[in-house]
Amino acid sequence: MDSVRDPELPGLLLRTERDALIPLLRSRPDEDFAIRTCCPGWTVRHVVAHCATVLQRVVDQRFEKGVFTPEANEEDIAAVADLSHQQVVDALERGMTDAGPFIAAAGHGKLDAVALGEWVHAGDLREALREPAAYEGEGLPYALRLLASLTRARRTQPLLARLEGHDAPLVLGADSPEPATYTGSATTLVRLIAGRPLTGTRYELTGATEADLIVFT
Which residues pair with 171 in a beta bridge? Predict the structure, then answer.
């Protein structure tokens, strides 16, 4: 699968996920925003607020020192504490709509991970809300392509991923004549690279450990 950066891909992934996630969030009662997610210490509300504020930073081009650290993330979440749940969902919708061109224009794809991280968090939300196929959906092919280009740019653990239902393997990370190999579903691979729970999954991994594959958490 192609690992060359496509500057339009992050925006496409965000807009595709927007069309699936936002109606889901709007349909849930207020009490569901207090449900705990797999992100330590964060509820559904926290994850939505985090995603919305990160994208707003991208749109506003506010990248002061310490941005995107755990401490800055908590400050951003606190900054929208006075908004209703649906107002935070509104902010997330705007961010997923508007951030693509700013990510595309960032030099060397340095903000591409923001789009992929937002997509993973959408899966975190679906899983917390007990929706099926949490890390799947129409955005999955775009997410895999973005993962390939991102890991190539970062020269992460070389990995040849043989994905169920895919004819061509997904090549991740630095060039290597002897990459590690993964055989399993695409959604389980997403869980691996994002450090998400693997309970109930099945896969084969040789030449690397689970920790070696984590791209971000």
Answer: 160
